[in-house]
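User: My notes are a mess, but here's the protein and pyridoxal-5'-phosphate's SMILES. Can you give me a structure?
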Amino acid sequence: MHGYDTLIFELSSPGRRGYSLPAPDVPTSDPAEILPAKHLRAAPPELPEVSELDAVRHYSRLSQLNYGVDTHFYPLGSCTMKYNPKINEDMARLPGFARLHPLVAEANAQGALQLMWELGQDLAEIAGLDAVSLQPAAGAQGELAGVLMIRAYHLARGERRTKVLVPDSAHGTNPASTAIAGYRVVQLKSDSEGGVDLLDLERHLDEDVAALMITVPNTLGLFEPRVLEITELCHDKGAQVYMDGANLNAILGIARPGDLGFDVCHFNLHKTFTTPHGGGGPGAGPVGVKAHLEPFLPVPVVTRREDGFELDWKRPQSIGKLQAFWGNFGMLVRAYTYIRTMGPDGLRAVADNAILNANYLMKRLEPYYDLPHPGPCMHECVFSARRQKKLGVTAMDVAKRLLDLGFYAPSTYFPLVVEEALMIEPTETESKETLDAFCEAMIQIAREAESDPRVIHDAPRTTPVRRLDQTLAARQPNLRWTPPRG
Ligand SMILES: *Cc1c(COP(=O)(O)O)cnc(C)c1O
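Assistant: No problem, the inputs look usable. Here's the predicted complex:
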């Protein structure tokens, strides 16, 4: 039997082949005779020599080590790991979509262009905005596109503003994309309820501020009650307001960013509109804008003519092209399928059920973990393990122990404004039975912290690898096999 950590190189046996072919019936030649010597290897490559079955078993075994929402509950806060209906996969694999070459003539890609156009229309309606670009490959790139459009807008009006305001509870991509767009990031304090501190906002809001970027509901899972006041304050000073739409699943069909006064908003299709993600991709982060920012959208823009759809490149004020080709098209098909299968009432039910599930979890766990910002919450809730920390059990310990108990860990240590943060997002796709089982595991850990913290410190014991040095694993990943010497 091979262990989980058996490398395919260790299965290698000299001369073993993954194929058997009859001798060729055409003339062959020796590469050494027809290629210049400088292009020839001195030694054969160090490749594993295995049978086809060895290779298939090896990769099938590795694939089963994968942890995903198709196998387990995945309550990672802020990331919205909801179940991806398989009909999305069916549609994305339709040969007309999956096999379409990105450079095919527009006349031969009308179906794909129509899907993109309609998806843009749907997203604009959902968000109460006027135009959408599907190009950004992730939320972070949507942010960058949005901030670049805001910059182009100010410059077109002859204004050189230099600052963007971002609350201290923001996701790390907010300050990062703002800085990449050339702005100075100014951090705003949160008030005691976890919302934007209006006094701090007013203090910083001057004619040099290009935009305010906030997340609604915010990263504490709370709706910003003074959002209308906030967007108005900014507009009075000529600043634009950007909504990080990563948490849009909490307000789908209930409130629209455009109606709340936002000028720009990105969508994380891979969070709000299913479409699988993890391990860094693929993603899709379309960005929507109000009409005054439309001239600055990335090129090309999918437009409808009388006789079909086309890519419009003639947009002199555009911020330009963001990436190769037209976006992660397969993700667009999945999101489109999801929106069409859910319909308006279904999308509203997504938000209602996501909020219900999160509040159920919050109430059940409240006696066992500290809740720095009492609910009701929106689609996720943020606990603190500071009570457990006094017993020597950190948020990271809780997360590791959950793995032994059969659950993926919540987000830990985010948002930064909460000490020992445990951020839980159940999503609307989970049953009460699953939520209860997760709560039981969390309660068991809280009890163990009091009675037997050693079992927590020792966790995980049932996973393929135990506690890694996470810093070292991230900075110096050891992905290379070194053949034994001699
Ligand atoms: C996920 C997330 C982002 C970044 O989105 P990506 O698609 O991962 O680039 C930004 N803000 C918040 C609040 C998020 O949860």
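The longest helix spans residues 329-365.
User: Great, I'll file this with my notes.
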